[in-house]
Amino acid sequence: xxxxxxxxxxxxxxxxxxxxxxxxxxxxxxxxxxxxxxxxxxxxxxxxxxxxxxxxxxxxxxxxxxxxxxxxxxxxxxxxxxxxxxxxxxxxxxxxxxxxxxxxxxxxx
Amino acid sequence: xxxxxxxxxxxxxxxxxxxxxxxxxxxxxxxxxxxxxxxxxxxxxxxxxxxxxxxxxxxxxxxxxxxxxxxxxxxxxxxxxxxx
Lengths: 109, 84
Description:
Largest interface: A-B, 52 and 45 residues
Structural class of chain B: mainly alpha
Distance between the termini of chain A: 57 Å
Number of helices of chain B: 3
Number of domains of chain A: 1
Mean pLDDT of chain A: 85
Shape of chain B: flat
Radius of gyration of chain A: 18 Å
Number of domains of chain B: 1
Strand content of chain A: under 5%
Largest sheet of chain B: none
Radius of gyration of chain B: 15 Å
Low-confidence stretches of chain A: none
Number of strands of chain B: 0
Structural class of chain A: mainly alpha
Distance between the termini of chain B: 46 Å
Largest sheet of chain A: none
Oligomer: heterodimer
Low-confidence stretches of chain B: none
Number of strands of chain A: 0
Number of helices of chain A: 3
């Protein structure tokens, strides 16, 4: 009972993150909304589904594997995408022209 | 037994992610939308597998997570340098 309620709540959180991903005006704020989907929606729900089953069953270990993989790979993937966007010339909204001239990402001028 | 309309909510979130992937203005927004879509798809596969009572569909979710990571890194490394 508690497991179903928490999975439903995490679905609502994922829906809020998707609305933010659709409606935000800037690339970096959209990256923040994507992280809301990944952590608040998916990882929370997998945690709930992992402890909703018996303690040492096959469900437990398989969902634990997914949780560990996502915990390592999601920040790496988001950082790679943001670094690539910064090198491609995407700038934050409402920033002046010469305010971010030095490029630590290694992009060319 | 899972509460069944939760899959409609996952579907709505996946639809919004794919809409962002379809109309992203820059080249990186499309990556972001597809990555979020694969995350929600992983969650839906795991929830469906727990819901119908077998654990054999969770392997598909493990493969989805790993292939999403490898594909995102490959696209982020070899994408064109000028935005299009």
